Structures are given as C-alpha cells and as structure tokens.
C-alpha cells in the first residue's frame, strides 16, 4: 500500500474520531441543571452510584456520569464518601471526583445538646455509620480509656462548636479528632486555673454542665458556678436540682419534690457527696470558662426569682434562702405549676 494511501486513511480516521469526540463532548461537558449530594457506601457498584445521582441530582446527568465512569474503567467497590454536585458541574468532573474519592467535608454543629444520647442520635443522622456504632464506641470502656476517659466522662471530649469531618468517618476516628480539639482547648493556662480550684478539667466540665442547666443567663453563670464551688470546697452536698432531673431522666420537671431528691443515683447530688461521675449535659466552652473564672463571693444558697425572669436570688443565710424559696413556691402555685 502506498504511503500516500496510508496517510489518507489515517487522516480520515483521525478526522472521524475528532468528529465523534466533538459530537459527544457536549454530552459530557454540559453541566447539570440541578445540584445535589451523592453518598457512596463501600461495596457500591457503578449502577448503584448512577441510581443515587439520578435520584439526588438529575436523571439524565446520572446517565452521563455512568457512561463516564465506565469509560474511565472506574473501580468504585472500595470508594466511600459524600460528594456535592453543584449546579453546572460536568459529568466528567463528577465522575472523576467519585472515581478518585475526592469527597466533600460535612459541617457538624452541635449546641444546646443535653445528653450523650441526643448527641449520638444527631451524629448518626449526619454520618455514614449511624447512631448504633457511635453508641457502642461511647460505652466501650477500653475505647474511652484510650483518651483518658470513662463512659461517664467521655462526653467531656464533645465540646459544642462547628467542626468539619468526612461523611464516612468512623466513631473511633471521630473521637480521636475530638480528643485533639479537647487538648487544644485545655491549654496550660486553663489547666492551672482548674488546679487552683482543686478540680481536674473533666470535673470543671461537670460543674459547668450543672451550671448550664441551672441558669440560661450567661451573665449569671459565673456567680452560680462560684456558689457550687463554695459548697464543694466546704464539703457540702451540691444539692443541685438539675442532677435530680438527670437522675430521673426528665428535664421537663418544673418542681423538685422531696421524694424526687431521694432517687437512688450516683448523679443525685442530694444523696451523694461531691460531684456526679460526669457531666449531665455537654457544656459550652464559654460555660467552662465561666467556672474557671468564677468571681469570688460567699453565697451558699440560691433560688429562682419569683418574677420568673430566669435569674436567681443568692444568699449566704439559710433562713433568708427559705424566705426566697417560699416566695418562689407561692409564685409557682399561683400559676398552677406542679
């Protein structure tokens, strides 16, 4: 075959390929008209990923992503992650990101979380492994011990804030990351303040959890904290109503009765000396600092004000405290609060 003939054939093939690619390019380059999130679990197939793209982003876009994954000969069986598909992203880019595991982070914010169970449920709704896996890790004494904690104090690691993790993060890896943030917060200065109070960092968090349940007023938390520190340092029982609610398992209780204060629980500070075994809620960092920097005073008693302002009346005299309590109880009765 003459060289000119071969050259003519090659030129024709190249031209044909160029025409085909030019015709197909818009199919793969055109961006998706919608945005969405695709979650890929271990063991997924290209068909399973396609189905997720079609359901969560766009049907036709999903077909283009499937074609690209097949052309790339993508091995996705061990691929996991959450992938955000913004409006306008091409099928080629989406397929490449999934193939290479270029997943997006998940912002995880938790504030005003009372119990470890509430936090666990919120975690399970956000991340791949679900609440049961995290619940098992939090109750695992050996796992907790890795971070110098017990199942009762592991909550101290979970300091409310906004964090970013990958969707497929394991409970163990999550706790490792939270332990790092915990250590960053507990600087040498904060540890020195805790030591001057005669408390460990986790004991400070436990006091903070009681304070946060006791008052919703941020400007009062230091004052409340000092009252409990005064009791603790004088060897008095804390007799903190929130610990009774925690022991009973009902934070909706409006009035603490004498029988309630007799519930048998290591968290009931009407019955036990010292601090509970661990926090009764996940305290904010600001509340922990309010404990560390609690202003000096000699108050030992407090009672919610009868005006229902959310603030408390403080006194060092028990008789005066009883007067405050009677006024508050009368106010509850007048409103029919039982």
Description of the molecule:
This protein is mainly α and 338 residues long. The chain has 4 domains: 1-30; 31-103; 105-185, no CATH class; 188-298, no CATH class. The protein is built from 14 helices and 6 strands. It has helices at 3-29, 46-56, 59-71, 91-99, 116-126, 130-138, 141-145, 171-185, 188-196, 201-214, 221-233, 241-248, 285-292, 318-334; strands at residues 36-40, 81-85, 105-110, 161-166, 301-304, 312-315. It has a two-stranded antiparallel ribbon. The chain has a two-stranded antiparallel sheet with strand order 3-4. Helix 5 crosses helix 6 (130-138) and helix 10 crosses helix 13. The radius of gyration is 30 Å and the shape is elongated. It starts with a helix and ends with a helix. Mean pLDDT is 91; it is low at 12-24.
State the main characteristics:
mainly alpha, two-stranded antiparallel sheet, 338 residues, 4 domains, 50% helix, 14 helices
Architecture blueprint of SSEs:
Layout: H1 3-29, E1 36-40, H2 46-56, H3 59-71, E2 81-85, H4 91-99, E3 105-110, H5 116-126, H6 130-138, H7 141-145, E4 161-166, H8 171-185, H9 188-196, H10 201-214, H11 221-233, H12 241-248, H13 285-292, E5 301-304, E6 312-315, H14 318-334
Antiparallel strand pairs: 1-2, 3-4, 5-6
Helix pairs in contact: 2-3, 3-4, 5-6, 10-11, 10-13, 11-13
């Amino acid at each position: 075959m003459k060289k000119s003939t071969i050259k003519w054939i090659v030129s024709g093939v190249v031209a044909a390929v160029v025409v085909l690619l030019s015709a197909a390019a818009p199919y793969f380059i055109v961006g998706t008209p919608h945005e969405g999130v695709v979650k890929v679990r271990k063991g997924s197939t290209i068909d399973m990923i396609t189905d997720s793209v079609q359901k969560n982003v766009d049907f036709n876009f999903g077909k283009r992503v499937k074609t690209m994954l097949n052309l790339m000969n993508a091995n996705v069986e061990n691929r996991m992650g959450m992938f955000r598909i913004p409006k306008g992203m091409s099928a080629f880019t989406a397929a490449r990101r999934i193939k290479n595991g270029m997943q997006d982070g998940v912002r995880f914010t938790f504030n005003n979380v009372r119990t470890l169970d509430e936090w666990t449920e919120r975690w399970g709704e956000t991340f791949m492994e679900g609440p049961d896996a995290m619940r098992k890790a939090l109750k695992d004494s050996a796992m907790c011990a890795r971070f110098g904690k017990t199942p009762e104090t592991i909550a101290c690691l979970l300091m409310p804030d906004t964090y970013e993790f990958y969707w497929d993060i394991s409970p163990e890896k999550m706790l490792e990351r939270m332990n790092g943030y915990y250590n960053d917060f507990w600087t040498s200065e904060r540890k020195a303040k805790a030591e001057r109070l005669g408390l460990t960092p986790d004991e400070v968090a436990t006091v903070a959890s009681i304070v946060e349940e006791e008052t919703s007023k941020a400007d009062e938390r230091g004052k409340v904290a000092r009252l409990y520190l005064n009791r603790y340092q004088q060897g008095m029982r804390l007799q903190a109503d929130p610990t009774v609610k925690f022991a009973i398992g009902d934070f909706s209780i409006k009035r603490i009765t004498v029988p309630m204060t007799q519930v048998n629980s290591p968290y009931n500070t009407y019955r036990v000396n010292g601090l509970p075994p661990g926090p009764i809620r996940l305290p904010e960092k600001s509340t922990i600092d309010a404990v560390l920097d609690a202003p000096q005073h000699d108050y030992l008693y407090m009672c919610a004000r009868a005006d229902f302002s959310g603030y408390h009346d403080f006194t060092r005299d028990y008789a005066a405290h009883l007067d405050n309590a009677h006024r508050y109880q009368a106010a509850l009765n007048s409103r029919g609060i039982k």
